[in-house]
Amino acid sequence: MADVVGAVFDALADRNRRALIGFLAERETATATELAAELPLTRQGVAKHLGTLWEAGLVRRRRRGRETRYRLTPEPMTEAMEWMAAVGAQWDERLAALAAHLAAPAEKVTRERAEEGAARTKTTRRGQP
User: Fold this and answer.
1) How far apart are CA 22 and CA 75, in angstroms?
2) Three-state SS across the chain?
3) I need a labelling partner for 79 at 20 to 30 A (CA). Which of 2, 38, 111, 124 fits?
């Protein structure tokens, strides 16, 4: 899948799928029937949500006879967490720059604005000096 992070976020957009991930995190494996006993969903509804989680790579499934057991797969979630950490770091840098700008003494900001205004008034309406 080309966009692993997008698939993870799509899968996590539904609260029932997030609940399924929570239940699977508490157990090593579980069947759709076992998980349906934990949620106000039918076994078929749980199976549908597990299919979506499987398509996103968040769970593995293994058939044993008539039973299909599901287990969490951490790698796609790790990729999504790394992406969020990278984006968060970018925002931290931007917010730190904004905080530094806001913390600058007011007279420095006023002087910079005055210098910018003086530079603008040196040109005519046609943009020529």
Assistant:
1) 16
2) CCCHHHHHHHHHCCHHHHHHHHHHHHCCCEEHHHHHCCCCCCHHHHHHHHHHHHHCCCEEEEEECCEEEEEECHHHHHHHHHHHHHHHHHHHHHHHHHHHHHHCCHHHHHHHHHHHHHHHHCCCCCCCC
3) 38
* Those residues with Cβ within 8 angstroms of residue 59's Cβ, 6 or more apart along the chain or in another chain: 24, 50, 53, 70, 71, 72, 73
Tokens of 82: 């790394």
CB 53 within 8 A of CB 20: yes
**Which whole number is the average pLDDT over 92-102?**
83
Alpha-carbon distances, residue 25 vs 21, 71, 110, 119 (angstroms): 6, 8, 56, 62
pTM value?
0.65
